[in-house]
């Protein structure tokens, strides 16, 4: 490598990767981001569809595990930061890699304020005055975003540790409810197999669409691969084991709540886990509210951590300004994090402006589409890699891609169209920001 190239690489990377994340850190990213606030409401959402709802869980869990296998396979080929961004770039070139990165990054800073708002919603259980004060709600949301943002800015090791602790803490109240269901539950409380009376396949499709969003984030451990110890082993293991962990927790928690809360009550409940926890006494619902706060805070911490990794990954591919790839003393991509935190904060403030709530909700749906599209492209990348050399893996990639396409189309044509517009809006940034420089090896590129 020439002296010039070495200097360019040093400028792009700033501080070298610290290999600060181990297996459990990767696992906590997958589990901590997937298990957010949605799990605390899903039993009520699924109740009108009866026991067929479990078939929906099985479909989405199976599809998600297929995607996890594909991501694990792709992660063996590269330990580059970026995950789906790196996979798309390797398989389909600069433009596809950049557009995947653009939409994927947008999904994180668009979703960031939504998670903060969910946290504030649970906080009102302990601070009722928040319910009538949008300004206080906004202040609490901003404090949470920037408080966790400071953890990520301090260093990826600290953010990874906080993520692991929050993931363990969030699982405690969920496991308590699971225990309540299987110890004190009654099968008489279970709903009918198909109370809606609809066609089995139609109801299955509805419940699958309702549950598939709960698995958004299964690719999380692939994104900071450049900072993972023994990434070729730990990233695939954490992706697959984390996805299986979440699938088991979701299905067991839904079953437990249905065993405790009568079907008629469950269908109208706005806090099914709290209703299930009432069996513990007056402190039960408070425990669940506190668990939900930890759960949402953990999901937000992981989201913030990854929101800084994504622009850095594009900079390392020399498709964005080099400054976005520089790290501070703690190994954190400082400018990338500040940019993401700033955009997320602006959206949070906008959410509390009169007349923008509906638009903000729509943006969240676009955020989900932008999370799913990189998974579809990743499946196509594995299909391209394995079609001639490993037909078994090609079939798995094809099935995973079909599931991802089903998930994307399930969001609705209108949301999909606007999500496409958001991604294509990155074209000007691609042509304006792409340097005319020579090719440079990424400092976090795997050898061999």
Record the SSE blueprint:
Layout: H1 3-13, H2 23-34, H3 42-46, H4 52-75, H5 84-92, H6 94-123, H7 134-154, H8 156-184, H9 200-212, H10 231-260, H11 263-267, H12 272-277, H13 283-316, H14 334-351, H15 357-386, H16 391-409, H17 413-424, H18 426-433
Helix pairs in contact: 2-8, 2-10, 2-13, 4-9, 4-10, 4-15, 4-16, 5-6, 5-15, 6-7, 6-13, 6-14, 6-15, 6-17, 7-8, 7-13, 7-14, 8-10, 8-13, 13-14, 15-16, 15-17
Overall description:
The chain has 448 residues and is an all-alpha fold. It has one domain: Amino acid/polyamine transporter I. The chain contains 18 helices and no strands. The protein is globular, with a radius of gyration of 22 Å. The two termini are 17 Å apart. Belongs to the amino acid-polyamine-organocation (APC) superfamily. Basic amino acid/polyamine antiporter (APA) (TC 2.A.3.2) family. It is a multi-pass membrane protein. This is Arginine/agmatine antiporter. Keywords: Cell membrane, Membrane, Transmembrane, Transmembrane helix. It is found in: Cell membrane.
